[in-house]
Amino acid sequence: MKKLLLIFGMLYVTHCCLGQQDTTNANGTTGFLPLIYANRQLTYLTFYDGIGNLPNMVTEARFSGNYFLKKEKINWALELNLNITIRIRDKKSFPIPPPSYNPVLTYYRRIPSGEGSFLSKTFLDQVFWEVSVGHHSNGKAESFYIEDSLGNDTGQINYDNGNFSTNYLELAFSTFKRRNRGGQNNYYTNLRTAFRFYSSKMSAKELRDTYGFYRLFLTYNLFKIPLGEPGKSWSDFFSRSRLRFHSGWIFGDMRDAAADDIDKRLIAEVTYFYYPGWLSELGFFVQYYRGQDYYNIQFLRTAEVFRVGISSNPLDFDGFKRILK
User: Fold this and answer.
1) CATH code at 236?
2) Which long-range contacts does 176-181 make (Cβ < 8 Å, 24+ apart)?
3) CA dist., res. 70 & res. 100, Å (int)
4) Measured on CA atoms in the order 4, 10, 13, 17, is the torsion positive or negative?
5) d(Cα 316, Cα 324) in Å, to the nearest integer?
6) CA distance 251 to 215
């Protein structure tokens, strides 16, 4: 009962915080800012630890507060995302290991898509590039490895308070397309590709041959899934749904991982979201994830988990206009 009260308490706080974003006006907003908003890191809560090899948890929660600056013509934007991920362990007093801090500053720039061109007719209405500067750490400053009584490294990672700190630069391109079904522009697709580089000079030295400093990502989103005959109950159900495919490959030196080691280097994620009308900006999700554990200093573990939870992000792109200005 205590665990359920804890989860629902966090859900209530999250819902209240998200609801405070509805007060702004958005006269003249185009599809550019809604696309950025749709692609932002999600605030989410999971129900327990799911099915897989993650440690027993009450919940994993990510809080991704977003702050935007933009130009009136809406062809560029600047976003600060304060990503904080916590895991509440399913133990007495529900301990929280050191959180995972991942603040990211991102500059977005819209690219003219060439209205009426083959590309715009085929798979894009909006296209933009983005560059991000990010930091990832656990907020600790002790030795990365546990030391023996003589002060020598034992080679065992200090998971409790060892310094795990790195900084990175990411360059990405995204496309967005409104697609026609039944004579109406009623579903949307998005494709994003990104390359990330971690600086060895701005990272804990122990990560240089352990973490994998080069990463390539590919993400595909389908908003308002077009299944079933329009106007029917199943069609209406899927029209409130979103499907996300995300994959990545880690390049560079990794401990005990060959260059073609799929188990260590591949990142794969499939997530299905459903947004019931009575939850406004919140939706339920089911997710399968496998790949490097992104939490704190746990990156040597390959996480594989199937889980459910609740997340942020409105589904209706036209509805973004009441949030963004």
Assistant:
1) 2.40.230.10
2) 176/31, 176/35, 176/124, 176/125, 176/126, 176/127, 177/123, 177/124, 177/125, 178/31, 178/125, 179/226, 181/226, 181/230
3) 28
4) negative
5) 13
6) 6
What is the SS3 assignment for 313? coil
Nearest to 207 by CA among 260, 264, 162: 162
Each as own residue / partner, the long-range contacts of residues 255-264 (CB below 8 Å, 24 or more positions apart, any chain) are 255/209, 255/210, 255/300, 257/212, 263/302, 264/292, 264/302
Is the pLDDT assigned to residue 148 strictly greater than 80? no
Instruction: Output the pTM of the full model.
Output: 0.82
pLDDT tens-digit readout, 200-249: 899 988 898 889 999 999 999 888 888 766 666 677 788 888 899 999 99
Torsion of CA 288, 291, 296, 298, to 10 degrees: 120
Cα 12 to Cα 7, 8, 17, 58, 311: the distances in Å are: 9, 6, 9, 16, 12
In the chain, the number of structural domains is 1
Q: Which domain holds residue 256?
A: 2-322
Using DSSP's 3-state secondary structure scheme, residue 54 falls into coil
Q: Give the contacts of 272 (CB within 8 A, at least 6 positions apart).
A: 241, 242, 243, 244, 285, 286, 287
Question: Chain centroid to CA 42: how far?
Answer: 5
Residue 102: strand pairing partners: 83
CA dihedral sign of residues 264, 60, 84, 204: negative
**Among residues of the chain, what percentage have pLDDT more than 70?**
73
Q: What is the pLDDT of residues 241-289, one digit of tens each?
A: 889 999 999 999 988 889 889 999 999 999 999 988 777 678 899 999 9
Question: What DSSP string describes 84-119?
Answer: EEEEEESSTT---PPPEEEEEEEEEEEE---TTSHH
Q: Is the pLDDT of residue 52 over 90?
A: yes
Summarised one tens digit per residue, pLDDT across range 84-133 is: 999 999 998 999 999 999 999 999 888 876 555 555 555 566 788 999 99
